[in-house]
Design brief:
The chain is built from twelve helices and no strands. By secondary structure, the protein is mainly α. The chain is elongated and about 55 Å long.
């Protein structure tokens, strides 16, 4: 996509999903190109794009243009966010009830993700297992995440879109890993959540798809 096309995408973006996809594309641009694209926007929309770009940077999302384009291209119109089926519990309730073995798998699942994303996920709620999670993080990652948590405690979490994307994206991956542990019949550990070669970056990709299609 050239810059003229990108400028058109941004100007035509509605408030909501397409706006977030435009911000994600901007995030993947080289700095000079991103500055140029932002300069083409009306003042109000430029401000909104900058807010979304700040959110992505705070989460530590990589500014890899090729990868970002693949995430956006793979996002279909019907992926509008998590759906709670009748009889199932919400993502927030799911994580509130997380058992200790599952926390160990969660550590393995998230420890290779950006520090900012881990910290924001832990900040979503006052999880009863948060200290257990932190204790299992290897150093120096634990120290970096602890520092971010202290900094971010002074910063509002943000809108529901970010919360839904974080909880829904991580839950989808965690449930898959826990099913594998149950099938194998062994005690859960962080190694069970560690990313496999074939799905490197899957958690982050799932989060970004949900984030970019949330309204």
């Amino acid at each position: 996509m050239n810059l003229t096309d990108l400028g058109h995408v941004i100007r035509e973006a509605d408030a909501g999903a397409s706006e977030r996809q435009a911000a994600l594309l901007l995030h993947g641009l080289a700095a000079d190109d991103r500055i140029w694209a932002l300069s083409q926007l009306p003042e109000r929309q430029e401000q909104r794009m900058r807010e979304l770009l700040d959110e992505l940077r705070a989460l530590g999302i990589p500014q890899d243009g090729r990868w970002v384009k693949e995430v956006v291209a793979s996002t279909s119109d019907n992926e509008s966010g998590p759906v709670t089926l009748p009889g199932s519990i919400s993502d927030s309730e799911y994580f509130s009830k997380l058992a200790e073995p599952a926390v160990s798998v969660l550590v393995g699942l998230l420890r290779n993700e950006p520090d900012g994303l881990i910290a924001r996920f832990l900040q979503v709620n006052a999880w009863s297992w948060r200290q257990n999670f932190m204790d299992q993080l290897p150093q120096p990652l634990r120290g970096r995440v602890a520092a971010l948590l202290q900094q971010q405690s002074q910063i509002p979490m943000g809108g529901d879109c970010l919360k839904r994307a974080l909880l829904g994206g991580v839950r989808a991956q965690l449930e898959t890993r826990l099913a594998g542990v149950q099938a194998a019949g062994h005690k859960a550990s962080p190694a069970d959540g560690a990313p496999r070669r074939e799905d490197q970056g899957t958690s982050l990709s799932r989060f970004l798809k949900r984030w970019s299609t949330s309204r």
